[in-house]
Amino acid sequence: MVSPKDFDFGAHLFAIGTKVNCRKVHVSSRRLLSLADLSTQSRCTYTRFMNMHARQTGEIQRPLIDSYGRQVNYLRVSVTDRCDFRCTYCMGENMVFLPKSEVLSFEEIQTIIAQFVARGVRKVRLTGGEPLVRRDIMKLIAALSESHLAQGTLDELTITTNGSQLARHAAELARLGIRRINVSLDTLDNALFTEITRRGRLSQVLEGIEAAQAVGIAVKLNMVAMKGVNEDEIIPMMEWAHARGYELTLIEAMPLGEVALDRADAHLSLKQVHDRIAERFTLEHIAKRTGGPARYKRVTETGGTLGFITPLSHNFCESCNRVRLTCTGQLYMCLGQDDRVDLRAALREGGVEALDAALDRAMIAKPKGHDFVAERIQTPSVVRHMSVTGG
Ligand SMILES: C[S@@+](CC[C@H](N)C(=O)[O-])C[C@H]1O[C@@H](n2cnc3c(N)ncnc32)[C@H](O)[C@@H]1O
Ligand code: SF4
């Protein structure tokens, strides 16, 4: 599979310049270049050339390479914007959901995922909203499992869930080849759990987590760390999770959509949290990288893994390997930017060919990085909620 990072860019781009008769590509062959070093026009030429070349040579898989040389091999799909919780950092109390007619059908989701897989995507995560509240969701998971996991065209199909419906679906998920799952859990305190989620029941989520583990699904817990809300629970949560064999990842609240929570008040720097944990525990750096914003440490005393997702204080964009599909078929190339391509319109109006061309447009439009700034956390940098884009 082509990875621009593997190339001697000087020589390669010279060849491109010759082939596509583009005199704008002037690079030295003496040093390895990153695509990011080039002008926008040269980068676009490169992306177009790669796709044109692959089409002409009839390669089945034309990798999705953006104009900064990053290969997209991970797709997150929001299957619904609806949810049975109303977490204070994620949604307003009276969140208005989209009419069902605007949401992609299962057939459309399957077609879009199949096209991404044909273009080299190896990992798909279903999210939302709450993916497990969409009617007949297990039928979609079964279809994706059969067409991609069973055929070996996808390495991983996974979900991010609030866990409320997990107990009744865990066994079937395991049977369909789901090996790992992310479950959101911000507190182990009953009352606080109901306060944060506004309507969730902690016991239900804990049952779901246990059910998943019992059928052999590896569980990673996601905890949004909030100052004055659950910050005192971070260490107890880590000890609790690691004692049971769950990974824990801490997430900094991101400025997405208008919510009631005062984000400036609740903002907790994970750098400080890290240093506080490091006073009591040995945190060893581990090389695990997912191409996303998480960085991981091994906690010597517990033997468990602790992740930190710090979009506000850390720039993770240079290795970004993912794009996000909303439940209405909008493809966002960056969680923190508004650039998007309408895959639903492409598919409905022009079929699979138009969809494929839309993916090429998306690669050219994928921005260099996000625009979250800690000082501006109270004002959303991006007006859509995480439940719309898919967390
Ligand atoms: C939007 S949810 C969707 C999946 C599922 N409902 C869940 O809660 O896991 C995905 C993840 O995004 C996180 N999240 C939601 N809004 C967020 C925000 N504004 N900042 C940071 N994380 C957020 C949630 O905690 C959750 O771990
Ligand atoms: S974080 Fe997940 S569970 Fe909470 S309101 Fe958002 S979508 Fe629902």
Write up this protein.
- The protein is an alpha/beta fold and about 400 residues long.
- The protein has 2 domains: about 5-55, no CATH class; about 75-320 and about 370-390, TIM Barrel (Alpha-Beta Barrel), CATH 3.20.20.
- The protein starts with 8 loop residues before the first helix and ends with a helix.
- It is globular and about 55 Å long.
- It has a 12-stranded mixed beta sheet with strand order 7-8-9-6-5-4-3-2-1-10-11-12.
- It has helices at about 10-20, 40-55, 105-120, 135-150, 165-175, 190-195, 200-215, 235-245, 265, 270-280, 345-365, 385-390; strands at about 75-80, 125, 155-160, 180-185, 220-225, 245-250, 285, 295-300, 305-310, 320-325, 330, 340.
- Helix 3 runs parallel beside helix 4 and helix 5 (about 165-175) runs parallel beside helix 7.
- Helix 5 (about 165-175) links the parallel strand 3 (about 155-160) and strand 4 (about 180-185).
- The structure holds S-adenosylmethionine (SAM) and iron/sulfur cluster.
Question: TL;DR of this structure?
Answer:
The chain has 12 helices and 12 strands. By secondary structure, it is α/β, with parallel strands linked by helices. It folds into 2 domains: 6-57, no CATH class; 74-321 and 369-389, Aldolase class I (TIM Barrel), CATH 3.20.20.
